[in-house]
Structure formats: C-alpha cells, structure tokens
Amino acid sequence: MSDLIALSIQPWDLVLRAVLVYLTVVVLLRISGKRQMGQMGPTEFVAILLISNAVQNSMNGGDNSLVGGIILATVLISSSALISFLTYKNRFFRTVFEGTPTLLIHKGQMIQKNLSSEWMRESELRALLRKQGIHDMREIEMAILEADGTLSVTRSASS
User: Fold this and answer.
1) Using CA atoms in the order 63, 65, 66, 72, what is the torsion angle rounded to 10 degrees?
2) Hey, which residues does 145 pair with through a beta bridge?
3) If 0-12 CB within 10 Å is exposed, 13-18 middle and 19+ buried, where does residue 129 land?
4) What is the pLDDT along the chain (159 residues), one digit of tens a residue?
5) Which residues, in sequence order, are CB contacts of 118 under 8 Å at separation 6+?
6) Quick one: DSSP state of residue 8?
7) Rounded CA gap, 66 and 70, in Å?
8) Residue 10 contacts by C-beta under 8 Å, 6 or more apart in sequence?
9) Phi (first) and psi of residue 76, to 5 degrees
C-alpha cells in the first residue's frame, strides 16, 4: 500500500520534469508545422502516440506511485491551462505557441514561397481545395492556412 503513496523522488523534481517535458513536446510539435497537425496522417498519428511512451520515464524519473502520477497529471493540465491563458492574453505567446496564418492563394494565384515555407506541395493544396468543392483556383480570392492547420477559403465575388 505504501508503494501507492510514497514518492521515490521529490515532488518538485516531478513538477520540474513534467513542465520541461511538456514545453519541449509543445515546441517540437509547433516546429513540425501547422499543416502536419491540421491534416494528421498515419505517420504523424503514430509519432504522437509514441511520444507519450517515449517521454514517460523522463517525466516520472522512475517514480511509479499513485501520488507521483497525480502530481504529473496536475502539472500537465495546469501547464496546458496556463498556456491557454497566456495565448489568450498576450500576442507574443499566441504567436509562439499557436503560430500565425499563412496566405497560400491570393486572387487565384498560388504563393509558392508560402507553400514552400509550410512544406506543402501544390498537389496537397489542390486536394484540400477539392474537399471544399473548389476545382478552379480562379474562383478563390484568398486561401489561408490557419494556425491550427485548417484551410480557410474565400471565394471571389465573381464566382
């Protein structure tokens, strides 16, 4: 019974480990790009699943107690809530943690530089447009890859 309650490492060590691992994973996911998170394919999905297993020991430091698990869960949820609050209140944190939208099409013309910066091929963009019922880029006033990875399209008034 004491194994459920007794911590094998200091509580602040668990807190520090959880915060550092959480921030590292969030930053790595942000670096991976918004397209990857918005249209998650099988490889990205598997990576997300494996990340949780890969970072488990670095967070718990070998502590398998119930109290340790509760501390880690509390820190992870609190960290998430704190980042949500910071991104709500502050533009800098919003940019760092959520990113910014990227204009991909303007007045029917693809912006190749922006496609490249988002690691998106023209064929992928065309597939996303077809899913929205758009088959001709001349119909588009603007297409924006949002910070969350979704594609927002505004049709031109002449369509």
Assistant:
1) -10
2) 102, 151
3) buried
4) 566 788 888 999 999 999 999 999 888 888 877 655 556 677 777 777 788 888 888 888 888 888 998 999 999 999 999 999 999 999 999 988 888 999 999 999 999 999 999 889 999 999 999 999 999 999 999 999 998 888 999 998 875
5) 33, 34, 35, 102, 104, 145
6) S
7) 6
8) none
9) -65, -45
Q: Do residues 29 and 22 lie in contact, with contact meaning Cβ atoms separated by under 8 Å?
A: no
Overall CATH class of domain 102-155 = alpha beta
- At residue 68's C-alpha, the angle toward residues 63 and 70, to 5°, is 150
The tokens of 130 are what? 């077809």
Domain range list for the chain: 2-98, 102-155
Let me know how long the chain is.
Answer: 159
Other Cβ atoms less than 10 A from the Cβ of 89: the count is 9
